[in-house]
Amino acid sequence: MPQITIDGKRVECKDRQMILQACLDAGHPLPHYCYHPGLSIPASCRICLVEVEGLPKLVPSCQTPVRDGMVVRSNSPKAIANQKQVMEYLLINHPLDCPVCDQAGECLLQDYSYEYGRSQSRFEEDKHKKPKKDVGLNVLLYNDRCIMCTRCVRFTREVSGQSELFVEGRGHKEEISIFPGKPLDNKLSGNVVDLCPVGALLDKDFLFKQRVWLLKETASISPSDSGGENIWIHHNEGVVYRIKPRFNAEVNQWWISDDTRYAFKPIHDENRLTSARRTQYGSQIETQFLHALDEAVAGLKAAAKEGGPGSLFAMLSPMMACEEAYLLGKFIRSLDPKATLILGPAPKTETNEVFKNSMNGKTTFTIQAEKVPNAKGVQRVIDLLGGPKADFASSMELKNFKGGWIVGGYLSSWVPSDAKLQPPAWGKTFKVVQDILPSSLAEKADIVLPAASWAEKDGTWENYAGKIQSFAAAVPPPEGARREGDVYYKLLGRTGFYVAADVRAEMGEPFASVAAAPDRASVTEPTMEFVEL
Ligand code: SF4
Ligand code: FES
């Protein structure tokens, strides 16, 4: 393993690693704009130049491989002079509109200006102004803030593969642009906003909504499909403002799909169910949550008594956490040991959406066709609990139910509108519906319980490949709604509140050994291998 010395410090490196990445891995900061470990290396911004003993001129640390015994200096007079010159050059035409820029607080131009720049500008001429551009469905381009690092252009060539962005013009007239009639509207487009080191590419949805230093981060998993993309939920005072990718080398690397990016919208849907309801004389009326819960238990007990063994069912949604599905399964079996556990509908598109590097044809990202996060995990729980079971399609054949508990939690309308596609169990049985949004099924339920959305609770989901990952509650459920885990704890007569890790320990392997979702302080971005693109 090669070793180098950087500013007098010994650093262990990987074979063929670049100086910059070796330093970053070792916690030694070096300024960089155009370099990103998931993209090719153009070495164009020149801020990362360092002095290497024995070489006559400064070299780009992002593009120079380490050699055992190399002596590198990023704080020599030559290297410092270069950093100051690059910063001065980049700020010549910059509008300096930090107070109204969304990127302020997480902008590399601000940070490096403070750490490596000059405190004064010597530029007295008029600044060259470049236009703002609407480049796609979700993305705005403030061209005069752009530093031409070309991360965004390389992303659309090397990851999303659609090449919508390109560099137009030359010299100080260079601009990022799109081709006429070909906007940036692929399903990975939002990643260019995350990649942009300054405030040039902005998310239209987040624009002017919140200052970033007010946001808190919670680790979670994408609810939009079975891919299990790792994410950070950014929120403040109970409101989710945006979703950002969380690096996971095995699952999503640095990227997320736009479906994942905007999957937080239903959390703050104005139609969220927030009050418990029960049916009285043929119409639904609002009631206290605990009262509704008592009536739900009484109704299910009466149904089990009337119908005998096998007359109850629970429809476990693939939006539920594995722990919640386990607890509800336990509860329904405590009322009727022969109760049927049904896996709720798992909508799918025809095929996975596959993205390829347009230069070499390698697959870079896949959006899974299954549009729920945990069908595999809930099925695993159903198998773990044993006894009668069915999937949604085969539940069409099951007619002998007298009562059941149905869980939703989907991001959009999920109840099939065609009555022929609805299981007979949804007919004249005693129904308890626990959901986040209204539906024709909730309207017909005997008891409606407002539930928590995916970002409002802890748990684990299993992705399409069998990887079980945990997620944490970012915000509280709206007033009136209750987390499913807490409800099932109460129904099972357990004291205290639901603790996902305790339930996992009870479920045994493979759940017991799944770690809790990390917090930001415990996450160090894993070291990168040399990425051959
Ligand atoms: S828009 Fe952002 S990512 Fe694209 S070249 Fe300019 S600074 Fe770089
Ligand atoms: S980061 Fe090395 S030249 Fe841009």
Structural overview:
The protein has helices spanning 19-25, 77-91, 108-116, 151-158, 191-195, 258-261, 289-307, 322-335, 375-385, 440-444, 484-491, 500-507; strands spanning 3-6, 9-12, 49-52, 59-60, 71-73, 132-134, 139-142, 165-168, 175-178, 201-203, 216-221, 230-236, 239-245, 276-280, 283-287, 312-316, 340-343, 353-356, 363-367, 389-391, 403-407, 430-435, 447-450, 459-462, 468-471. The protein is α/β, with parallel strands linked by helices. The strands form seven sheets. It has an eight-stranded mixed sheet. It has a five-stranded mixed sheet with strand order 2-1-5-3-4, with helices on both faces. α2 (77-91) crosses α3 (108-116), α8 runs parallel beside α11 and α8 crosses α12 (500-507). The radius of gyration is 27 Å and the shape is elongated. The two termini are 23 Å apart. Mean pLDDT is 94; it is low at 526-533. It binds iron/sulfur cluster and FE2/S2 (inorganic) cluster. The site of iron/sulfur cluster has 13 residues, from α4.
What is the topological layout?
Blueprint: E1 3-6, E2 9-12, H1 19-25, E3 49-52, E4 59-60, E5 71-73, H2 77-91, H3 108-116, E6 132-134, E7 139-142, H4 151-158, E8 165-168, E9 175-178, H5 191-195, E10 201-203, E11 216-221, E12 230-236, E13 239-245, H6 258-261, E14 276-280, E15 283-287, H7 289-307, E16 312-316, H8 322-335, E17 340-343, E18 353-356, E19 363-367, H9 375-385, E20 389-391, E21 403-407, E22 430-435, H10 440-444, E23 447-450, E24 459-462, E25 468-471, H11 484-491, H12 500-507
Parallel strand pairs: 1-5, 16-17, 16-21, 17-20, 21-22, 22-23
Antiparallel strand pairs: 1-2, 3-4, 3-5, 6-7, 7-10, 8-9, 11-12, 12-13, 14-15, 14-23, 18-19, 24-25
Helix pairs in contact: 2-3, 8-9, 8-11, 8-12
Bound molecules: iron/sulfur cluster and FE2/S2 (inorganic) cluster.
FE2/S2 (inorganic) cluster (FES) is lined by residues 32-35, 43-48, 60, 62.
